[in-house]
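Please decode residue identities from the backbone states below.
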């Protein structure tokens, strides 16, 4: 008699920040998030449990792209736990753009007296 062990993936909490633009497919994204019992974490930020995987960002991106239509302006940033390496974050759709606060800090320049 053989006993089969079913390997069940470990669930980890992830956070997803999203900006789909004015005419983005929010209905598709919300359907995808609802299916994962995601919770609201502020404007355009959500959290949900996902099965841990060596390529967790790639798996989530693949799943999203199968159910949500993204324009070339859409941006989704995923924060996730890397296996034994703490937390990390990366854009899974789109990329970084200039920060709206860039240039607001006072420059710390010291002028020498003559």
């Amino acid at each position: 008699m053989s006993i089969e062990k079913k390997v069940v993936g470990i669930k980890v909490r992830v956070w997803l920040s999203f900006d789909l633009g004015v005419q983005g497919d929010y209905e598709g994204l919300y359907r995808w998030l609802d299916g994962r019992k995601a919770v609201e974490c502020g404007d355009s930020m959500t959290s949900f449990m996902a099965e841990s995987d060596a390529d967790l960002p790639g798996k989530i991106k693949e799943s999203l792209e199968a159910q949500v239509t993204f324009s070339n302006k859409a941006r989704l940033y995923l924060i996730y736990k890397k296996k034994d390496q703490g937390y990390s974050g990366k854009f899974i759709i789109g990329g970084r753009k200039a920060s709206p606060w860039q240039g607001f800090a006072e420059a710390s320049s010291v002028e020498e007296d003559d």
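Observation: The chain has two helices and five strands.
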